[in-house]
Design brief:
By secondary structure, the chain is α/β, with parallel strands linked by helices. The protein has 7 helices and 10 strands.
């Protein structure tokens, strides 16, 4: 595998393609270029993380992939077809859990299945209950959002997205507001879910470099604004991974140091 390659060589067409994507935002104080000439592919079944300085356009990348924003120039493709409008096939998990406060947790987890018209009510309930049990939410089926901790709400948020089997799940710093111990638990959960859903593709934004490496097949390293691709680094650590000990692998430290050198350089340049 070429460490500078934009895609992994699998012989299959990429699920997601960004080609020379730029995005300009207009404001009364003048135009702001968030992204400039961003190109990379993501293949089915990959787990790709994205890191970069604050304000470099990471979230903008996700919003263009899902169709919430249009590229000012360049093209975004999903399964080889141009992205035109919001793509309901794609799951999107943000920092905010977005659970409906008037629905029970079971009703929330079932909501995606109901919205997609998948299965009879009893089948939707069974699938939701099964997923909730896998993530430690058994016994909380009839609780409401305000009765759960932040970590439990994010567990429900993730399995609500997984429930309807989207081919691609975008995650925008989903563990950002959580304490360190809860983050580790949810990272472990996500690694286990990824193993069980090998066909699902994940694109995950984070400011936590250890998290980015521990979860990923490849890490996309972005420059300071306007965001460009500085390097795409393969994470050649074996799977399954132990989130609590993966950082002890000497190869992990090599990858960490390589990416950190890029980020440190970007931050120095950005301050200057």
């Amino acid at each position: 595998m070429n460490s500078n390659a934009n895609t992994m060589e699998t012989g299959a067409s990429p699920l997601v393609t960004l080609r020379n994507v730029s995005r300009r935002f207009r404001s009364p104080r003048g135009d702001v270029v968030a992204l400039s000439d961003v190109s990379f592919d993501v293949n089915e079944g990959e787990f790709v993380t994205v890191v970069g300085p604050s304000g470099c356009g990471k979230s903008t990348v996700l919003n263009i992939i899902v169709g919430l924003l249009e590229a000012t120039s360049g093209e975004a493709l999903f399964r080889g077809k141009p992205v035109t409008g919001t793509n309901v096939e794609i799951g999107y998990v943000t920092q905010s859990d977005n659970l409906f406060p008037w629905k029970t947790i079971l009703e929330n987890v079932s909501f995606g299945l109901e919205l997609q018209g998948l299965g009879a009510p009893a089948e939707r309930r069974e699938k939701a209950l099964s997923l909730m049990e896998k993530v430690g939410l058994k016994g909380f089926e009839h609780h409401f959002r305000h009765e759960l901790s932040g970590g439990m709400r994010q567990r429900a948020n993730i399995v609500r997205t997984l429930a309807y089997d989207p081919p691609l799940i975008l995650l925008d710093e989903p563990f950002g507001p959580l304490d360190a111990q809860t983050r580790l638990q949810l990272q472990d959960l996500l690694l286990n879910l990824r193993t069980e859903h090998e066909e699902t593709t994940f694109i995950f934004i984070t400011h936590d470099l250890t998290e980015a490496i521990a979860l990923a097949d490849r890490v996309v390293v972005m420059t300071a604004r306007p965001g460009k691709i500085r390097e795409i680094v393969p994470v050649d650590l074996p799977r399954p991974r132990d989130i609590y000990n993966v950082h002890t692998d000497p190869r992990f430290r090599e990858i960490y140091d390589r990416i950190w050198a890029h980020l440190a350089d970007e931050m120095k340049g950005h301050v200057a």
